Amino acid sequence: MTLLDSIEQLIPSASHVQAARAQRAKAITATQTCENLLLAPELSGSGLDLSERLAVAQMVAISSGLPALAAHYSATLPSTPPRDDARWQVICHFTQLLATQPAAANRSALLALRDAGLSTSDVVLLAQLIGFATYHARVFAGVAALAALHPAPTTPTLIAAADASFIHPAHLPAPGEPLRLNGYTSETLGWEAWLPVLDPASATAEQNAVLDASHPKARTSDFYLLLAHQPQVLAARSEAFNAIMYAPGGLPRAERELVTTVVSRINGCVYCASVHAQRFEQLAKRNNVIAQIFADPDSAGTNARERAMVQASATLTRSPGNLGVQHLLPLRAAGLSDLEILDTIHACALFAWANRLMLNLGEAVWPVPQNL
């Protein structure tokens, strides 16, 4: 059974969810592509066999409080489990740490994987798999809760058209004076990998193509150059990211950035919080709610709509297994459509994945103070 099948079983009679998901077909397809790749029986360039990868995904589902999702993974586990040796124990420790305490892992936890015999490419694959599994858990939980929510008031369904005015975030205007509060900031930070990154001069044709498609600055970014050790996975993740964050219609782009800032603040990802706080300000032309998120994400929001998004995102981030219809009711009361709620779930889930990569493969680098 595929990821798509497992989610469809949750919503056989939830026509309002099916209608919303039909408008996000690109995100659903990209998600399935990620699962097909990460859990392929034979994954090119992988030092992690299928039983290990499935067991890792199952551990994440259990840690997320989602036994039904854990059963989805266990149903396809080979009869021979991973060998319980020192290498596997290190993998299990890293998996549990990322799944439950993403900000607690550090350089030593990452390097322990290398010491246990994993190559840089294998470590990148493991981090991507754990990140994907945390994303999957939150999509699974969010769609189940949305299926239990009463449909939005009947309105004509409009299929969103491509936005001709779309501007890639790399080309948005500069924000105003940056915020600095509680160790978080909206200014531009750097990011430095803890493992050797790909040298663009020695990249394969596939790696070059993926870097070019990933981001305008991918060739000078430690993040992309590290993930390019697994180019197919990077390409699939980029497809999912773009399909979720930049899809036309539904939740306004500024509010998707708001959700991702909340998730990043709760997970302790200073780098992601800085990027998406800045993008919110660029799109919304204000940063008052960002200051509230940096101060206290649980009470943030300048109006009922923002507070509902913040609180639902906080619950889904911290404990996906506890998310229920009661956490989505304030979103409906604040006027969010089914598609807007689905977009909120997708953005929140996506940054469970993104934060874990940024927090556990490297670290944020603050700008050097300028002496005046």
Automatic annotation (TrEMBL):
What are the protein's UniProt keywords? Oxidoreductase, Peroxidase
Q: Which Gene Ontology molecular function entries are recorded, alphabetically? A: peroxiredoxin activity
Q: Signal sequence span per UniProt?
A: none
Concerning Pfam families, the annotation shows: CMD
Annotated Carboxymuconolactone decarboxylase-like domain ranges read 231-312
Which InterPro entries does the entry mention? AhpD-like, AhpD_core, CMD-like, Uncharacterised_peroxidase-rel
Q: From what superkingdom does this record's organism come?
A: Bacteria
Q: NCBIfam families, per this entry?
A: ahpD_dom, peroxid_rel
UniProt protein name: Uncharacterized peroxidase-related enzyme
